[in-house]
From TrEMBL:
Residue span, HTH merR-type domain: 4-73
GO MF assignments: DNA binding
Keyword terms, alphabetized: DNA-binding, Repressor, Transcription, Transcription regulation
SUPFAM superfamilies referenced in this protein's UniProt entry, alphabetically: Putative DNA-binding domain (SSF46955)
Origin species: Sedimentibacter acidaminivorans
InterPro entries, per database record: DNA-bd_dom_put_sf (IPR009061), MerR-type_HTH_dom (IPR000551), MerR_fam (IPR047057)
Listed name of the protein: DNA-binding transcriptional MerR regulator
Key word Cell membrane present: no
């Protein structure tokens, strides 16, 4: 094994660029020593061992400033504390990524449900739904979202139109859905897949809860300001089957297409049935 190594040799040995080795030198992490015979700067065999240590720490995403301190100016106790702090940061990242994955999974299920059930009307026993109305005119989606974030970070509520059952069954609704929209209430709603409402500390005063025997569900597509007939087909189905609605009709927004030629929205429809 050689005694002295050039920057290019160290870089090749560890599979990095010459600039990376020079940058570590600039930071003072590992610096070569000048040979008095030819004024060249060389790394030693001992430096190779140190570089191996440095790259292992870098591979676990430890900041270079911490690596520098651990290598040049610290005790084992300090090194242990740095690693423990870094482990906590990694745990926090994992938690956030798990939350993000859960939210992405919600969207994936929403989109797949829309693909499979567009205009399909069926009875189902879905989870209870938790919702919170956005009070007008000063209500804030962000402010109301915070109530749900206090409940769970694993799922995100959907913007929801709440239609009183009396309005849904009225002649005005049947004859002019577009005009009836001004009577909709705005809300955020969440499927209670985590059984949140069964917890002792659930803040019942902050939310409305729908726990029907059955849900009549579908997915509808509205052409903005043009065609809302899909919801009327569900209304007709309710009347034909002589179903008794047991609460507000929920239109949960899942996707939007917004362009000058063809605006359309997709909604999950949830109707509580006795």
């Amino acid at each position: 094994m050689k005694e002295k190594y050039l920057v290019s040799e160290i870089a090749k040995y560890f599979g990095v660029t010459n600039d990376t080795i020079r940058y570590y030198d600039k930071l003072g992490i590992i610096s070569p020593k000048k040979d008095k015979n030819n004024n060249y700067r060389y790394y030693s065999r001992g430096d190779i061992i140190c570089f191996s240590y440095v790259f292992k720490l870098k591979n676990i995403e430890l900041p270079l400033k911490d690596i520098n301190t651990m290598l040049n100016d610290s005790s084992l106790k300090y090194a242990a504390s740095v690693i423990e702090d870094h482990e906590q940061r990694i745990d926090d990242k994992i938690k956030k990524l798990q939350q993000l994955k859960s939210v992405i999974n919600d969207y994936r299920k929403c989109f797949n449900n829309a693909i499979e059930n567009i205009n399909v009307i069926k009875l189902s026993e879905n989870p209870n739904i938790i919702y919170r109305e956005i009070e007008e005119p000063n209500g804030s989606v962000i402010e109301n979202m915070s109530y749900f974030q206090n409940l769970t970070m694993m799922h995100v509520p959907l913007f929801t139109f709440c239609i009183d059952k009396e309005l849904f069954l009225s002649d005005m609704f049947y004859n002019n859905v577009k005009e009836s929209r001004k009577y909709y209430k705005y809300a955020l709603s969440l499927k209670d897949e985590e059984e949140l409402i069964s917890k002792e500390d659930f803040p019942h005063k902050d939310f409305n809860i729908i726990k029907p025997k059955k849900w009549l569900t579908s997915v509808v597509k509205f052409y903005t300001n043009k065609d809302y007939s899909a919801i009327l087909k569900i209304r007709e189905y309710v009347e034909q089957k002589r179903m008794e609605i047991d609460g507000p009709v929920l239109l949960r927004a899942i996707s939007f297409k917004n362009n000058i030629y063809n605006n359309c929205d997709y909604y999950e429809v949830y109707i509580p049935i006795k």
